[in-house]
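Entry 14. Ran structure prediction on the chain below.
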Amino acid sequence: MLTSYPIVASAESVDAAKTWLRLDGDADDPVLAALIVAATAQCESFTGIAQVERSFAETLDASAQWARLRAWPVVSITGVATPADVALPVDSYAIDIGTDGVGRVRLTTAAPQRVKVTYRAGAAASWAEIAEPVRQAIVELVAHRYEGRDRADGGGLPDGVVAMWRAARRMVLS
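Output, structure tokens:
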């Protein structure tokens, strides 16, 4: 089971959406922030990339074989514990973060049947550091949803958004 800590809409992201939509004032900021969170989550689902660095927790079957962490790219692995959050001794597991950003964990001694791994993952440290085409597509999706909020169908994903995200897409084959 993978738990992602919340995506947060930064003031910069709200300002970017307001600029694109040509909005003045702060009245729509909460709506835009909610749309940014939703659009960023949809972007991450589509591309397979955690866009802004944040914390994750993942419960895995305990094994002596390397287990791959699902969020990508992994920046740091901060803990390995039992599902009840009892930290495992450092010599009972091994961790690895490859140059490709893939995080892996394996047990080196007998341990519980499942382990909880906490880590940080994300391609960018802040909104401003998200790749420009990906960031622009998020803003365009926010604008599309904002302008179409009264439509019953929601409008789907605009072709331009799909094109920008497709270029950044990361596929993982099992």
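The first helix runs from residue 11 to 21. Will compare against last week's run tomorrow.
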